[in-house]
Amino acid sequence: METPLIELKNITFKYSSEETKNALSNVSLNIYPGEWVALIGHNGSGKSTLAKTINGLIMPNEGEIFVKGEKVTEKTLWDVRKMIGMVFQNPDNQFVGSTVEDDVAFGLENQGVPREDMVNRVKDALEKVRMSDFAVKEPARLSGGQKQRVAIAGVIALRPDVIILDEATSMLDPQGRQEVIETIRKIKEDSNLTVISITHDIDEAAHANRVLVMREGEIIQEGTPATIFSRGEELIELGLDVPFPEKLKAALNERGIDVPATYLTEEGMVDWLWTSGLNK
Amino acid sequence: MMNKLILGRYIPGDSFVHNLDPRSKLVASFYFIGIIFLCNNFLSFGVMFAFTLFAIFLSKISLKFFIKGVKPLIWLILFTVILQVLFSQGGEVYFKWGIFTISEFGVQNGAYIFIRFVLIIFMSTLLTLTTPPLSLADAIEYLLRPLKVVKFPAHEISLMLSIALRFVPTLMDETEKIMNAQRARGVDFGEGNLMQKMKAIVPLLIPLFVSSFNRAEDLAIAMEARGYQGGDGRTKYRVLHWQGKDTMVVITFALLTALLVFVRS
């Protein structure tokens, strides 16, 4: 087995000592290099809290986190943050710079990257997210999807090992969402990035190698998207959506048509549908 | 509302004044305001006036914009001028009624003050019309840097300034949105007497404040996640270039000062 890039050991976290419920309770998790992991779960299930513990924005009450074998502590915090980039939910509230290129450069400035190097890396990162034409535009003139792509550029300019998308597509329209996921997918392919995406969006989760389902601060299920999505009814009970083929499957089952229980992608569903007619 | 306000707006362009270093422009504007008080006769004001018009000509921006810049302040200017005219004494008296006197000196002083005001507004409008707010923030940071010796937080001030500037349009949009949302719920803005008007502002102000707090928190977390640890050890993406023309501006101002000292009485 590979050595994990990120190791979480029995993480427990409470926002304040008065609260009776743990935001995270006894979470253990390994993430391997090059993986795309999706964290799903209803609101308040602890997904975002988990993401924030990974790069030390939140220190867990109990348990340990290792990133590349290094324990996350007050001392190693900033080194860990260099390895992990985060894109947050609200595109407006994470835009620090006054123009697109300033925003992309912000992280590099913080690391003290020399200016000549910085100029190249900013250009490069903007090209990767296809925002080069907007380099000198102000955030007020960009759409939500464009702002999120700039946020991604700001993260990849830092050349992290891991990128965490903390509901990065939840405030976007379907088109913007598609653009952002597509951008991430391409960058991941090019540079063997590890992606942790926290999401309500089932299509985004379908891109993952592994899906983790969280409920009340615990990871209750883990598996490939296919195995997780085939538990259609259970997901709905957890307050999550199921992919369209699963909905179709449920509707067909209701009408007495037997559809195979295994998870089918849209193409798989189409294939099954047109071949099933031939069997009759 | 903000569209009418010319003060603090930037008009993109490519002219001699546009391409100057923001530091030289900022310092020159302040210096200009300083030396305008050297003027004490019509000849010296004439020199300054000609200089200002020449600067405006170099910026390739229509004079209309500058006149628009004066408009919101015209009542204040006229009020001051009228006070000067009515209450200054000395020289030949043209008119006298009770405590009001219109005298030679009064009229002269009034005219001086009028020109002074207009020139100061023209010059500061020229600065803001030709310099993007961001460059101004950069210039302010640079000029404040020597104050670090006395522990003045120059980096923090300039960071706050640039974040504030970046959030102005975002907050304006949000204000508009909240206003419309409250209107949809039946709040009348700008109706009724003063008390009612002030009360109507509350459902606008409180959500705006609360959302600003949330924004600040999100922004702080996002900044930290991107490795922001304060001003030390940071490099800068934006750099200011001092060019030959900036030195030229400095020399021009030195000559202008010399000329002023020569022509003033």
UniProtKB/TrEMBL annotation, chain A:
InterPro entries reported for this sequence: AAA+_ATPase, ABC_transporter-like_ATP-bd, ABC_transporter-like_CS, ABC_transpr_CbiO/EcfA_su, ECF_ABC_transporter_ATP-bd, EcfA_1, P-loop_NTPase
Keyword Phosphoprotein: no
One GO location term (cellular component): ATP-binding cassette (ABC) transporter complex
Start and end residues of each ABC transporter domain: 6-241
Location(s) in or outside the cell: Cell membrane
Record keywords, A-Z: ATP-binding, Cell membrane, Membrane, Nucleotide-binding, Translocase, Transport
PANTHER family, per database record: ENERGY-COUPLING FACTOR TRANSPORTER ATP-BINDING PROTEIN ECFA1, HEAVY METAL TRANSPORTER
Name of the protein this chain belongs to: Energy-coupling factor ABC transporter ATP-binding protein
Species of the source: Vagococcus carniphilus
Lineage of origin: Bacteria, Bacillati, Bacillota, Bacilli, Lactobacillales
UniProtKB/TrEMBL annotation, chain B:
Keyword vocabulary terms for this entry: ATP-binding, Cell membrane, Membrane, Nucleotide-binding, Transmembrane, Transmembrane helix, Transport
Location(s) in or outside the cell: Cell membrane
GO molecular function annotations of the record: ATP binding; transmembrane transporter activity
InterPro entries: ABC/ECF_trnsptr_transmembrane, EcfT
Mode of membrane association: Multi-pass membrane protein
CDD domains for the chain: EcfT
Gene Ontology CC annotations of this record: plasma membrane
Bilayer-spanning residue ranges: 30-58, 70-90, 110-129, 246-263
HAMAP family: EcfT
Protein family (similarity comment): Belongs to the energy-coupling factor EcfT family.
Quaternary state and interactors: Forms a stable energy-coupling factor (ECF) transporter complex composed of 2 membrane-embedded substrate-binding proteins (S component), 2 ATP-binding proteins (A component) and 2 transmembrane proteins (T component).
UniProt function note: Transmembrane (T) component of an energy-coupling factor (ECF) ABC-transporter complex. Unlike classic ABC transporters this ECF transporter provides the energy necessary to transport a number of different substrates.
Name of the protein described by the UniProt record: Energy-coupling factor transporter transmembrane protein EcfT
Higher taxonomy: Bacteria, Bacillati, Bacillota, Bacilli, Lactobacillales
